[in-house]
Amino acid sequence: MIGCGYLGAVHAASMAHLGHDVIGIDTDAAKVEALAAGRPPFFEPDLPDLLSQGVASGRLRFSTDIADAAGSQVHFVCVGTPQKQGEFAADLRYVDAAFGALRQHVTPGDLVVGKSTVPVGTAEGLAAAYEGTEATLVWNPEFLREGFAVKDTLHPDRLVYGVPDGAAGERAVEVLDDVYASPIAEGSPRMTTDYATAQLVKVAANSFLATKISFINAMAELCEATGADVTALADAIGHDERIGRRFLNAGLGFGGGCLPKDIRAFMARAGELGVDQALSFLREVDAINMRRRVRMVDLAREVCGGSIVGRNVTVLGAAFKPNSDDIRDSPALNVAEQMNLQGARVTVTDPEALENARRRVPDLRYVETVEEAVESAELILLLTEWKQYVELDPEALDGLVAQKNILDGRNVLDPSRWRAAGWTYRALGRP
Ligand code: UDX
User: Where, by residue number, does substrate bind (predicted)?
Assistant: First the structure.
């Protein structure tokens, strides 16, 4: 496994769990040290057990030295493809470095399996660069969700192999089927495609999901203008099986290390391919999503009577979604930051993401518990729907807060319950 971030570390531990001998390689020595000791360097449910079992069994090892890839028959490349600074395009420096360094350690017959999310056309270029090695390149996109990464890896909705034509491609399918024998036996559908399709499946899926979220958030804007309730609207349209209720949760919108940068990189790539019009709708998907964050701050200002300057504001949640400590492009942290810049006294709490948040945005006040966070608050914003926040008892906060104002940024609280307890409850897209 080359690259041991959210994707590679989970894939490494999962492959060891399936019975394979795995070596995880990463250039970050601190990360390698933690993983080798069986400690995940980030929060992900089920990963600690899988990792420590793998390490204890001797089937899972870690190294900073790419030369340790020699001797493996299958090399998964799982490095990140972040957004380029100041541009929409993906930064491929880690992909280029990983494939470049690995090239001299592969032997004839090896499979080199790209899992990173890349602009379509990247795999074709990498396959050309590997000509002469007699290793076969496969593109095998990964669809795991943070928070469910282990489950999604061991029981994927589908497996997609982008393979070259001919005997090498056929052999690659056999080898990968062997690697993934267990999920395939348990019913995960498996498709083989050409390289271009395999690379596109990933960004098309993420674009569809982002579009679904922005669609419902656009409807939330209509609901706000008309007094309608977007949660009831989502339930009603979601009963149509062609639409489906999942990913129709309106609120603060999407963030994280995937959806935002993937739709932007996809637009950039479409431009390079001369088909930018085909994806111009994604510009709107992105714009609707970013408007949610601004609207949230506006709502906070409204509830505070026109100004948030000097007001004590509590933000529940810093991670981009629950069950994760990932704060990359986190809507919650972005709103906290905006309110701080606009003069509010912002206190943030989160069960897992405080350390990452503090490192990224040091000038906010961070506290460990909800009780500390809400003390003297004039306004509470629930921005990441961690279970413990969804289940908060409005009565239990009595006597701690200065004013009973709550903004539900994820439409997860019961408005009647909070109102009955004397709170001013407001949400995006709800009357
Ligand atoms: C996503 C894809 O789901 C996954 O298949 C891909 O491999 C990587 O990108 P992830 O970023 O981990 O996974 O999280 P996901 O659960 O998809 O949520 C993304 C964002 O959308 C979060 O910020 C979440 O809060 C938001 N979201 C999700 C909504 O705002 N509304 C919804 O209805 C669903």
Answer: 143-146, 202, 247-251, 255, 321
ipTM of the assembly? 0.97
Whether residues 173 and 311 fall in one domain: no
Residue 156 inside a domain? The answer is yes
The verdict on 298 and 373 lying in the same domain is: yes
Asked whether residue 222 is assigned to any structural domain, the reply reads: no
Nearest to 373 by CA among 396, 348, 395: 348
Ligand 1 binding pocket mutation candidate from 213, 217, 262, 387 (most atoms within 8 A of CB): 213
pLDDT, tens only, 51-93: 999 999 999 999 999 999 999 999 999 999 999 999 999 999 9
Q: Based on the fold, state whether residues 270 and 417 are members of the same structural domain.
A: yes
Residue nearest to atom 15 of ligand 1 (CA): 145
**How many domains is the chain built from?**
2
Is 224 domain-assigned? no
Distance 309 CA to ligand 1 centre (A): 33
Q: Which of 193, 208, 242 is the last residue of a domain?
A: 193
Q: Which residues contact 391 (CB under 8 A, 6 or more apart)?
A: none
pLDDT in tens, 248-259: 999 999 999 999
Residue range of the domain that includes 61: 6-193
pLDDT in tens, 282-331: 999 999 999 999 999 999 999 999 999 999 999 999 999 999 999 999 99
Neighbours of 139 (CB within 10 A): 31
User: Which domain CATH number covers 125?
Assistant: 3.40.50.720
78 catalytic per annotation: no
Of 170, 108, 114, 111, the residue nearest 133 (C-alpha): 108
Q: What is the pLDDT of residues 195-239, one digit of tens each?
A: 999 999 999 999 999 999 999 999 999 999 999 999 999 999 999
Mean pLDDT throughout 165-188? 97
Give the number of residues written for the chain.
431
Is the dihedral angle over the CA atoms 225, 227, 233, 234 positive or is it negative?
positive
CA of 324 to the centre of ligand 1 (A): 11
CB 74 within 8 A of CB 136: no
Domain boundary among 166, 193, 220: 193
